[in-house]
Amino acid sequence: MAVVTMKQLLDSGAHFGHQTRRWNPKMKRFIFTDRNGIYIIDLQQTLTYIDKAYEFVKETVAHGGTILFVGTKKQAQESIAEEATRVGMPYVNQRWLGGMLTNFSTVHKRLQRLKELEAMEQTGGFEGRTKKEILMLTREKNKLERSLGGIRDMQKVPSAIWVVDTNKEHLAVNEAIKLGIPVIAILDTNCDPDQVNYPIPGNDDAIRSAALLTKVVASAVAEGLQARAGQGAGEKQDAEGAEPLAEWEQELLAGATAGTAEGEAAAAPETSTDAS
């Protein structure tokens, strides 16, 4: 059963690539045609690659893995935080700090500092200090929370990362490659497919497209978590493995359920086909 439909992809604008003068020739095999100077992505391939990425994410999480969601561009920030939070996964949606993966021991120390400051604030640790000291500590806490809040509970480097716009998130992608961490990502027509282990050809500039594909990855995580928790129990109750996931299916498998409209509406409030 498909995890997303062709209609959902079309409605989200996932097929719109960049202007023909702004492309990566390595993406040629994923391009269907061009229209009015804009490349159109082959969504049949997108569906196939979605299935591969979905299965990888599901199995990775089912075996105890963690997926780090990364998307700092404006179009992706909301869906990255929302979907990662929905399934209890870490995320970065503000600014990628160099060394978040390759120098995780230092990042972990900053996370401990964040928790220390939060504990001080909640238990009255700021009392007895001058207004200037309290202001400085509060600013430090807010800064750490903004930059590291999404990974506050990440105890080690992730098993894989999900990326919206590999060009913008080149630091994250390069760090993952250096550590041998699999990269799952949306591949727009200006991206380099050689950097991605599990590519999903699509529009990484449209809000609805980024949101829909991020939702798909999050739902793969959810299915993996259920498999991890239930192990063989679900298989004994339902040979097809679909029944325990009825709630997720109503959101995502719109092509085969009555929840098509709901699944599409949940993707995002608005679409953008900006190819600039």
Q: Any overview of this molecule?
A:
By secondary structure, the chain is α/β, with parallel strands linked by helices. The chain folds into 2 domains: 6-96 and 157-265, Rossmann fold (3-Layer(aba) Sandwich); 105-150, Helix hairpin bin (Helix Hairpins, Orthogonal Bundle), CATH 1.10.287.610. Helices cover 47% and strands 12% of the residues. It has 10 helices and 8 strands. β2 (31-35) and β3 form a beta hairpin. α1 (6-12) crosses α7 (207-230). The chain is elongated, with a radius of gyration of 20 Å. Mean pLDDT is 82; it is low at 234-276.
Name its key features:
alpha/beta; Rossmann fold; Helix Hairpins; 2 domains; three-stranded antiparallel sheet; 12% strand; disordered C terminus; Ribosomal_uS2_flav_dom_sf; Ribosomal_uS2; ribonucleoprotein; Ribosomal_uS2_bac/mit/plastid; ribosomal protein
Low-confidence spans: 234-276
Find the structural class using helix and strand composition: alpha/beta
CATH class of the largest domain: Alpha Beta
Q: Report the portion of residues in β strands.
A: 5-15%
Instruction: Give the oligomeric state of the chains in this entry, treating copies of one chain as homo and distinct chains as hetero.
Output: single chain
State the helix count: 10
- Fraction of residues in helix: 40-55%
